[in-house]
Amino acid sequence: MGGNLRLAARLLALVAALAGALLLHGLWRLLRLPSPWPRLFLGASARIVGARLHVIGTPLRRNVVFLSNHLSWIDILLLAAATGTTFVAKGELARVPLIGWLCTLNRTIFVAREDRLGIAGQIERLRLALRRGWAVTIFPEGTTGDGRTLLPFKASLLAALDPPPAGTRVQPIRIDYGTATDELAWVGDEPGQSHALRVLRRRGGFDATLHCLAVFDPTTCGGRKAIAAAAQAAIAASE
Questions:
Q1: Residue 175: pLDDT above 80?
Q2: Helix 2-30 vs helix 192-201: crossing angle, to nearest 10
Q3: Does the model's pTM come out above 0.85?
Q4: CB 3.0–4.6 Å: which of 13, 80, 181, 210 could bond 177 by disulfide?
């Protein structure tokens, strides 16, 4: 009973936060002002699901690619709240009702890693975002992990940094859910809806820490594979 009540309360809070954010986002767009409301909605959603966000280090705000480990969809809420980043996401997410549309409000860049014939166009879209000065997050593991062991970092999308647009930097970020890691990590074959409901029914809050690690210049690495290796080594060393 308690879990279902928490689920209902959190869903109502998410709906209310979304309605308010969409209304204000529309007003900002009508006035032709840069809208902070997608980011603020994602941050509010993180708090609603129970996250207590802690940021260690200073994240860049522009002209940066964040390379992060990946545990759960909650990562997106936290990173957006802390940095204002947009995300590189799998193309099939764009077709999910409501979620896909909401992703577009945060300027998500959709890619299909398995589409080798279309990879050049995907890289160009990413480079265009970086030339505009955006902060962009890539999850180079390509999937979610258990929060204990880093999966190999895939370097295909990092071709956008070989060479990088002028002034672009790379900042690795390690996400840590502390004692709640085993409960929150989305691993195995668990359906996304099942994981979301489990999180929303969960009792109490949890500490979520973003370790924003040392920034580096990708031009000093010697190519996309070396960039991926440098970021993975930095994240591994920070544990």
A1: yes
A2: 110
A3: yes
A4: 181
* Alpha helix ranges (H) inside the chain: 2-30, 37-48, 74-83, 99-105, 119-131, 181-184, 192-201, 224-237
Phi, psi of 175 (to 5 degrees): -95, 135
Identify the residue whose tokens are 């709640």.
Answer: 180
* pLDDT level of residue 173 (50, 70, 90 thresholds): very high
The pLDDT of residue 192? 85
Residues written for the chain: 239
Distance CA 163, CA 105 (A): 29
The residue written with tokens 């195995």 in the block is 188
3-state secondary structure of 137: strand
Other Cβ atoms closer than 10 A to 132: 12
Question: How are beta strands 86-90 and 64-68 bridged, if at all?
Answer: unpaired
Which residues neighbour 206 within 8 Å (Cβ) at sequence distance 6 or greater? 50, 51, 52, 177, 178, 179, 180, 183, 184
Cα 143 from Cα 150, distance rounded (Å):
11
Beta strands 109-111; 135-138: pairing state? unpaired
Cα separation, 39 vs 189, in Å, equals: 29
The verdict on whether omega for the bond into residue 163 sits within 30 degrees of 0, i.e. cis, is yes
Helices and strands of the chain, counted as H and E runs: 8, 7
Q: pLDDT at residue 117 above 60?
A: no
